[in-house]
Design goal:
The chain is α+β, with helices and mostly antiparallel strands. It has one domain: Alpha-Beta Plaits (2-Layer Sandwich), CATH 3.30.70.1290. A 4-stranded antiparallel β-sheet has the order 2-3-1-4. The longest helix is centred in the middle third of the chain and has 19 residues. It starts with 11 loop residues before the first strand and ends with a helix. The model has no long low-confidence stretch (mean pLDDT 91).
């Protein structure tokens, strides 16, 4: 039996997963858009998002699970008061998306590998490395030559001034400023240690 790490309130996690048997999770643009809509519904109330990237058959998220006080404050504003385990919110997201894909493409059964993967991030240096790793994932998989060219990640949002739920200011502060964020992402440093840690 595979042991799964619990998601603790107030802590940072790199959450990632792939399609079962490497099946594509996102077959067309509307799938990405629908996943992000469901993400906003299920995850925004319980977590802050620092980075994300959706590839064809897998995804990466970097989140800080909110504290129980933060979650309750948000829920009181919505006139609902109920704390559920953070992993259940992610499960609800994946189940809702699976049902929509199954209906749209006449398939059945599981879509994601289970359980979804999660790694605790416990220091700022590793946090910056994971942000870079997530944003460069499309480059590493040959979808583009620079993360700015890929539309389904948070890199473009980090460089934008448009309103966003992404913790953009906090991400930029991790790198001191936007110029440093850009240069850090362009450094050719080896990120294989991240992959080794993730067991990818």
């Amino acid at each position: 039996m595979q042991q799964t790490q619990s998601l603790e309130f107030g802590k940072f996690y790199h959450i990632y997963n792939r399609g079962i048997n490497s099946e594509n999770l996102f077959k067309e643009n509307r799938n990405h858009q629908y996943f992000l809509m469901l993400y906003s519904k299920h995850i925004d109330p319980i977590a802050e998002t620092y980075a994300w990237c959706l590839l064809k058959n897998h995804f990466h998220l970097l989140v800080r699970i909110k504290t129980t006080d933060e979650i309750l404050k948000h829920q009181k504003e919505k006139n609902t008061v109920k704390i559920i385990a953070p992993h259940q919110s992610f499960g609800n997201l994946f189940n809702a998306y699976t049902k929509a894909i199954n209906k749209s493409y006449s398939r059945h059964g599981a879509l994601f590998e289970r359980p979804f993967k999660r790694k605790l991030i416990d220091n700022a240096s590793y946090l910056c490395s994971v942000i870079k790793y997530i944003h460069n994932n499309p480059v590493n998989h040959g979808f583009c030559e620079h993360p700015i060219e890929y539309p389904w990640s948070s890199y473009l949002t980090c460089l934008s001034e448009k309103p966003t739920k992404l913790k953009r200011e906090e991400v930029i502060l991790l790198f001191k400023n936007t110029d440093n964020l850009k240069s850090y992402h362009e450094e050719k440093g080896n990120l294989s240690f991240v992959e080794n840690y993730l067991n990818l």
